[in-house]
Amino acid sequence: MIWLACSLLLSGCGGGGSAGGNSAAISNNNTQLPPSDFLPDPGLSPMAALGEIIFFDTGLSPGKQACATCHVPALGLSQEAQFIVPFGGVKSNVFGFRNAPSGKYTMYSPPFSISGTAQGAGQPAVNGMPVGGLFLDGRVDTLAQQAVKPFLSSFEMANPDSATVTAELAGRPYIKQFTDVFGANVLNNPNATLAAIGQALAQLETEFVSFHPFNSKYDAFVRGQIQLTQSEANGLAVFNNPAKGNCASCHTSDSVGGVPALFTDHTYRAIGVPRNRNIPFNQDAVFTLSAGTYAYVPQNGIGLGAPGHRYYDLGLCGPLRTDLSADKAYCGMFKVPTLRNVAVKERYFHNGLYTSLCDVVNFHLTRESAPAHWYVKPDGTTPDQIYNDMPLAYAGNINTSLAPFGKTVAPRLNNAEINDVIAFLTTLTDKFDPTSTQVTTPAQCTSVTH
Question: Does the structure show a pLDDT above 70 at 287?
Fold first, then answer.
């Protein structure tokens, strides 16, 4: 009976499984023109205007990557579906570790901290609740720190050092604009030059309204400009209901501190996302077949027992963050993302496993009651052990009883309620026209009837 109920739910959205297929490399021209909603804004300060140029400039990377390569404006500043995780490196043919999170609304994330309050009922107890920071593991605190990290990452923009970035910058057509803002002497200090690049990008993210417009249908509804449709309103109710979707327990739907709802509480959770074997280094044999190719990937799974993989992405415990690796209570935790613009994203979860918002909703609902659907071996059909991308030694970190998770007889939501939740999520997409009541249903959910 449990599986039949899940089958009905899963068929309601038309999605199914993960979509693979990274192309061999990213194809970029040396010049990327901003899209219509990122045209130069005469209201920007000189530093922010400089940051906008840098955001789209592919000339500061040997692999011809720009910030906009992985943070596509039309997709809510998230990545394209054709890339499971972003490609980078000198030839733009090296796999990154994680799905690029949205670059929108990041200015509102507080610095990383661990509070003295343990997690709530139904969630694993830890030595304190991690909150804030940037990246999916919160390893930096400021926008400027975050902005410069990709420039020196071997699997992203792949500059070997700040001197190389400075030399590339010196040949860009906007170099005078750069020195007008930061002074000509800044180029004499490569580290200061890289820091200035980060400062310009941070100023853009802070100042330019396109990074935090708060102009979705939901915002218009909160301001009293329009009403939600019945389906959208029902979806909001299910979203907020602690006994049903309970989404708002992590994806806060209320204004906080005068800031409109961000649909994240900036905390970290372990939810047991299945292993994405389309990422090469998630295939154990690759470390013997292509040893040198993935030398940058730590074989951190050796000695951790079942399920016996050589590498795991453990979020707060590494591999990209190392200061918390000794506290195993945080292993497998990733930052709760904003749900703003979630309906225009093309890949979901930290490993880019799913391309369907419907799959994401259903995973939350039936992970415990129908694990054989989600956790499968490399053949794609044979059931695998539950939480197959987490060492069982850390499985206690995963939320198992708080709604919508839990080994319930049937999922907490029926088909109509799932469709309503997805209808509501479409109201979180920016650039809504308040003179219209129509919200475009994302292509991934066109089989859902509202």
Answer: yes
Crossing angle between the packed helical segments 2-11 and 357-366, to the nearest 10 degrees = 160
Pairwise CA distance, residues 371 & 107, whole Å: 37
Q: What is the pLDDT of residue 81?
A: 84
Q: How confident is the model at residue 11 (pLDDT cuts 50, 70, 90)?
A: very low
Mean pLDDT (the chain) is 86
pLDDT higher than threshold 50 for residue 314: yes
Residue 344, token pair as written in the block: 């225009």
Give the Cα separation of 94 and 88 in Å (integer): 5
3-state secondary structure 300-311: CCCCCCCCCCCC
| Cβ–Cβ under 8 Å, residues 264 and 344 | no
Angle, helices 415-426 vs 357-366, to 10°: value is 130
Quickly tell me which residue has 């154990």 as its tokens.
284
Q: Which alpha helices (DSSP H) does 57-130 contain, by range?
A: 67-70
For residues 355 and 346, give the distance between their C-alpha atoms in angstroms, rounded to a whole number.
Answer: 5
First to last CA, the chain: 26
pTM, entire model: 0.89
